[in-house]
């Protein structure tokens, strides 16, 4: 498949929201409380895109995935209960979601690889992320891709597991 990972545009919010809505529903069906409190929502996506942090994964110009990708932009991470591996610049990503039709094809991994490339292209060698303790798919992916568990961070009153991956300065995919 011919994938592209690029900045999203405001006109794409409806397609992105459809993908996230279904992901929210899947989390609910899995018995998770992640994303069950009215967040994320279309306004969140709009803010991502307005600050140039909203990215889409496409194949043949069809949007099949979404993630927010930011540099040094996560205040909650300063209050980690635990310890980050590095205190350098970092890329943080949130809201990774894949459309229903493409689940189980390793596309979250594709997005995370693109995010590594994005970090390296900005001379940043640390990726930080968090997920719910019951999001087994994401926990498994972090483990598979070499992320290390660093502790807990809190969002809207609930704990998330926090992870960091330090990239090799010579690393290129």
H/E element string? EHHEEEEHEHEE
Query: What's the architecture, going by CATH?
Result: 3-Layer(aba) Sandwich
What would the CATH topology be? Aminopeptidase
- Give a count of the beta strands, DSSP E runs of length 2 or more: 8
Mean pLDDT: 94
- Structural class from helices and strands? alpha+beta
Give a verbal description of the structure.
- The chain is of the alpha+beta class and 173 residues long.
- The protein has one domain: Gcn5-related N-acetyltransferase (GNAT) (Aminopeptidase, 3-Layer(aba) Sandwich), CATH 3.40.630.
- Helices cover 29% and strands 31% of the residues.
- It contains four helices and eight strands, in the order E-H-H-E-E-E-E-H-E-H-E-E.
- It has helices spanning 13-29, 42-50, 107-121, 136-144, and strands at 3-7, 54-59, 62-71, 81-82, 91-98, 126-131, 148-155, 158-166.
- It has an eight-stranded mixed β-sheet with strand order 1-2-3-5-6-8-7-4.
